[in-house]
Amino acid sequence: MFKTIMTNVEALKMPAKTAHFNPNIDKKLLCTCGSPNCDKRGVKQNILNRLEEVRVLADRPLTVTSGGRCNNHEDELDRVTPADHQKCIAIDIAVSGGKERAEIVSLGLKRGFNAIGISKTFVHLGYRQGERPVMWVY
Ligand SMILES: [Zn+2]
Known about the structure:
Blueprint: H1 2-13, H2 45-58, E1 64-66, E2 90-94, H3 98-110, E3 115-118, E4 122-126, E5 134-137
Helix pairs in contact: 2-3
Bound molecules: zinc ion.
The site of zinc ion has 7 residues, from loops.
């Protein structure tokens, strides 16, 4: 528990970045709720490192549509317990069709993401340490 809290604090103080992802450019890596109480949380470095590996394998730019979210974010308001985005362990990547969707899901699994959500317009890539793989549709 203490370790989880510490890594969340790290995700707040030092926004993760990699060769191809930087919160100064990929603005949606950080919470975008706009609340004055927003802590602008991003994702953990190990999560972004996995995404970087997906990006390298895909060999094309990837568009982040959501990363970290604080509990004021509109998609988090109805939650009873924090989910992947609040825990800084998931990133949504835009996809424009079936081929891109299959590509991101396939590469995400290959690089160890184990919580994968599939929608018409994006793929949720999450990593839940020690948990069995799960996949859902929106
Ligand atoms: Zn926020």
